Amino acid sequence: MRHVAPIDKKFLALVAGLSIFGLLMLLSASGPLGLQHFGDTWFFFKQQLTKGFIPGIFLFFIFSRIDYRRLQPLAIPALVASIVLLVMVYVPGLGLRFGGAGRWVNLGPISFQPSEFVKVTFLVYAAAWLAARHDNKARTLQEGLFPFLAALGIVMGLLIMQPNTGSMTVITMSALLTYFIAGAPIGWFVTLGMMGVALIALLIKVTPYRAARFMTFLHPELDPQGIGYHINQAFLAIGSGGLFGVGYGHSRQKYLYLPEVAGDSIFAVMAEELGFFMMVAFLVAMAFLVNRCLAIARGAPDVFGRFLATGIGCWIAVQTILNVSSMIGLMPITGVTLPFVSYGSSALAALAIGMGIMASVSRQSRV
C-alpha cells in the first residue's frame, strides 16, 4: 500500500478552526432570518451543515488524497470547464435569476453558483499555464501577457454579463497576483491596474445600480433609508460591538435590520457580537492561513505546485479583504462573501476543494 505523507498540521488546524468558527457564527447571525422566511431559526445552519460543511469535508478529503500534479494535464479542460460553467447560467431552463442577476444553475434537485467553482478551475488553468512558460516565456507579450489576458478576458466578460462584479474581481485579482508573483514585470502590473480602474469607472458610468453604490460609498449619509441603508446598518452593527462585543447571540442588527446577515454582511454581525479584539483575532487567523499557503507554495517540489498554492492563497486573501473592506466602508459593497463564514453551499464546496488541493500540495512541500 502506497504511503501518503501527512497534511501540514498548522494548515489543517487553521482550516478546521476557521470552519467550525464559521458554522457557529452563521448559527447566531441567521436565526431571525430563518425564522421569518422558513419558520425555523436553525434553517440556514442546517442547510450549511448538510449541503456545504459535510459535503465539504468529503471534497476536502478526496482532493487532499489526489496528487495535485494530476491536475496539471487538465489545464485546458479546466479553462473550458470555467467557460462552460459560466455560459450555463444563460441557458433557458438551467439558469436561475434572483434579484435581477443570473448567477445560478438549476440541475433538478441541485442548484449551484458556477462562479464559485470557476475560482478553482481558472486557478488550475493559470497555474499550469504559468508552469509551462516559467522559462521566461510568461514574461513576453506575445507568448505571455496577451494569451493570459485573452483567457482571463473571456471569464471576466461572462461574469460582467451576469452581472457578478464581486466574483469577477476575486478571480481577476487572484489570477493576476499569481502571475506577478510568478515573475511578470511590475510595469505590467501598474498598467493593468490602471486599465482595471478605467474598466470599473466605465461599469459605474453605464450601469445605474453600480453608480448608486459608488455614490453611497463616497457619501453613505446621503440616503440612509434608501441605497445607503445597507452600509449604514453595517456601520451601526460594527460600532455597537465596541471593543468586546455585546455577546455571542445578542446582536440587534441581525433582527431584520441589517440586510444579508447570513451572506456578505455577516462580518458586521460578528463585530457586533464579539467586538474589535475578536475581529482582529479572526483576521490574524486568516492572515496566518494565507501565510501558511504561501509557505507551502515556497516549499512545493515543482513550479506547478508553487503557482497553484500561491493562487489559492491569493484567492483567500483577496476575498477576505474585499468583504471586510466593504463592511467597514473602505470600498463599495460588492456582494463578496466571507470565506469559511458566509452562508452558501457552492462557496463552501468550492473552498473545500481549494483547501483540499492545498493540502495535497502540503503533503509534498518542504515546510
Describe this structure in words.
- With 367 residues, the chain is mainly alpha-helical.
- It has one domain.
- Helix content is 67%, strand content 4%.
- The chain contains 13 helices and three strands; from the N terminus they run ααααβββααααααααα.
- The chain has a three-stranded antiparallel β-sheet with strand order 1-2-3, with no helix packed on it.
- A hairpin with a 2-residue loop joins strand 1 and strand 2.
- The longest helix has 33 residues.
- The two termini are 25 Å apart.
Topology record:
Blueprint: H1 9-29, H2 31-38, H3 43-65, H4 75-87, E1 95-98, E2 101-107, E3 110-112, H5 114-132, H6 141-161, H7 165-181, H8 186-206, H9 208-218, H10 229-241, H11 266-298, H12 303-327, H13 345-364
Antiparallel strand pairs: 1-2, 2-3
Helix pairs in contact: 1-3, 1-11, 3-13, 4-5, 4-6, 5-7, 5-12, 5-13, 6-7, 7-12, 8-9, 10-11, 11-12, 12-13
Strand content: under 5%
How many domains? The number is 1
Mean pLDDT: 84
Q: Helix/strand/pairing class, anyone?
A: mainly alpha
Q: Quick one: how many beta strands?
A: 3
Largest sheet: 3 strands, antiparallel
Strand order of the largest sheet: 1-2-3
Helix count, per DSSP? 13
Terminal Cα span: 25 Å
Q: What helical percentage do the residues reach?
A: 55-70%
Write down the overall geometry: globular
